[in-house]
From TrEMBL:
It is found in: Cell inner membrane; Cell membrane. Residues 106-214 form the Prepilin type IV endopeptidase peptidase domain. This is Prepilin leader peptidase/N-methyltransferase. GO terms for biological process: methylation; signal peptide processing. Pfam families: A24_N_bact, Peptidase_A24. InterPro entries: Peptidase_A24A_bac (IPR014032), Prepilin_IV_endopep_pep (IPR000045), Prepilin_pept_A24_N (IPR010627), Prepilin_peptidase/N-MTase (IPR050882). Belongs to the peptidase A24 family. It is a multi-pass membrane protein. Residues 12-95 form the Prepilin peptidase A24 N-terminal domain. Its EC number is 2.1.1.-, 3.4.23.43. Keywords: Cell inner membrane, Cell membrane, Hydrolase, Membrane, Methyltransferase, Multifunctional enzyme, Protease, Transferase, Transmembrane, Transmembrane helix. The lineage of its organism: Bacteria, Bacillati, Actinomycetota, Actinomycetes, Micromonosporales.
Amino acid sequence: MPLAPLLVIAGVLGLAVGSFLNVVIHRVPRNQSLVRPGSHCPDCGHAIRNRHNVPVLGWLLLRGRCADCATPISARYPLVEAGTAALFVAVTARFGWSWELPGYLYLAAVAIALALIDLDVMRLPDKIVLPSYAVATALLVPAALLTGDPAALLRGAAAAILLYLLYRVLGAWGMGGGDVKLAPLLGFHLGWLGWGAVAIGAFSGFLLGGLAGAILLATRAAGRKSRIPFGPYMLAGAFLAVFAAAPIGDWYANLLTPAQF
């Protein structure tokens, strides 16, 4: 399939997935069913009409307010939908029409849900993280076999173990249990791409988390004893590696290579 229509399909799919992720982000931390009740206003309880459930457009038609009680609807809902669509398009552009594409689209969806949940409640729910191991296996193992690249699986498994051990050691210094459980999942996907991606993804997560922590301290938005969710930075670092591991690696290698005169 040509890339252009594939990107359009990815964008539409991302909008639909983003709409579902809004439900996941709201309900999973509250241990609520993802199926029942259907979409409804949390303030007045009225069901949301089908025409208002269209991603992004529904919010715009409602002008950001419930159709029944006029309660403001957070702009985060359309932003999650549009953001998921944008990330799906970017991932599709990165991998093209390939066997591994579904695995990384799933990781993108999980990343958005986990990042926002961690920001909201400072927790990475097992209900999302642990089943993702099975999904990653189901999507990437056949991809490795169909592409004739079993080495990618071995590398991914080794990277998963390596990041688990790293975060398990760091857990003794306050790293959250959810971060420890998430690390192997990211390691598996990064290891598929290569050891450079593993190194850049892991390092970038710590770098981004450290920079965010320093900014929060400098602006007094947080204190030295404040808890800061680390999951969003792990995920951001991982996707930075997915998209830019090669150019970042080349740039770093050039820094270490003496200039030729």
